[in-house]
Amino acid sequence: MTAAHAGGCRCGAVRFEVSAEPHHVSYCHCGDCRRASGAPVSAFVGFPVDQVAFTGKALKMYENGPVTRSFCGICGSPIAYVDERLEDVIYFTLGAMDVPADFPPTLHAYVSEQLPFLHMPDDLPRYSKTSVKRPDGTVP
């Protein structure tokens, strides 16, 4: 696999390489992402899961409904999530990417849950709920 992009956790026990360009980069304002990240807003970059290779033995998973989040079992850094409703894709936290500046978000998702004191004055599209099309072609 020739890596186009790479990343990992804070302590280096989890590393990953991606041999594809992203298909989705966004901010997420949902409460679940806030709790998982500890931040008032999260940012993610999505790739085809079959183009990702992980190394290291510290990757841990936490399942919450249809979403499984991964993190480093040593330092606790959030790494990524997969959603069983969205087959064949993985979303990495921008903070886990080696060069997060390469992935400027292109939209805001779940602005219906955005914290009232958080102001992000940009011209990006804003979606009340998800911005990712489901397999049936709908955007809930």
Automatic annotation (TrEMBL):
Similarity remark: Belongs to the Gfa family.
Keyword Transport assigned: no
Taxonomic source organism: Mesorhizobium sangaii
GO molecular-function term, one example from the UniProt record: carbon-sulfur lyase activity
Family matches, as Pfam families: GFA
Residues in CENP-V/GFA domain copies: 5-102
Superkingdom, natural source: Bacteria
Keywords: Lyase, Metal-binding, Zinc
Database matches in SUPFAM superfamilies: Mss4-like (SSF51316)
Cleavable signal peptide: none
Protein name per its UniProtKB record: CENP-V/GFA domain-containing protein
